[in-house]
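Reading a protein record of the kind used here takes little practice once its layout is understood. The reader may check this reading against the record printed directly beneath this paragraph.
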Amino acid sequence: MSDVSSKTIQRGGAEPKGIPESDAVSRNLSFANLSSRDGQLQTRADPHEQARRDRHRRQSVSFSVIFLVVMLVGLIALGQAVGWWSFAGGNPHAEPNPCPTRHVQAPELVRMQILNSSDRTGLAAQTATKLRQRGYRVTSTGNSSTQLAAGVPALILFGPRGIEEARAVAAQIDGARTQDDGRDDESVDLILGEAFRDIRTRDKAAPDLAR
C-alpha cells in the first residue's frame, strides 16, 4: 500500500522539463528578425533587396534625366527650324532686308499696239480708247490671227527691254498672260481673246501700277 502511494506521488509531483524562458525569447526574436524602434516592431530589410531597390531608384533617375535632355534638345531644334528663336550673332536690332521691288513703267512711257483675235468687231479700238484715257501711248490697233487658249483674256508680247512696260499693261487686265518674244525694243503688243471683257477699274489697277 505504501509503495503504490509513493509511486503515485512521484509520478504526479514530477516537474516537466521545458526550454528556458530566456532561450525561447532569443530564438523567437532571431527567427522573426525584429527590431524595436520608437515602441514599434519593424521588419529589418534584406541587404540584397535594399541594394536592388537602390539600383532601381538610380536607374529611374538616370532615365528621367536622359529623357528631359532629349526633349530639351528636340525643342531647341524645332524652335530654330520654325523660327521661334535664333542663335545667330549680329545686331539684334538690325532691320531685315527689304524684298526686291518689281518696277513698273509709268503708263505715259508705254508704247503699245492692240490686236483683236476675237470675233467681236471693234474690240481693239474700244480698248485702245480706254487705255489712252489712262495715259498709255497706243500707236495702232488691228486684228490678229493668234488664237489664245480658252479662258485666257489677253496675251502681252514684249522683249527683254520691255519687261517694265509689259507689267504696266498687265496691271490693267485681270488674268493676262505675258510672253517674251525676243524683240529688241520697249514696245508691247496686247492681243485680246474671246475671254476678254474689259480692263480693270482704276482702283483695282492702281496697286500694281504703284510698285
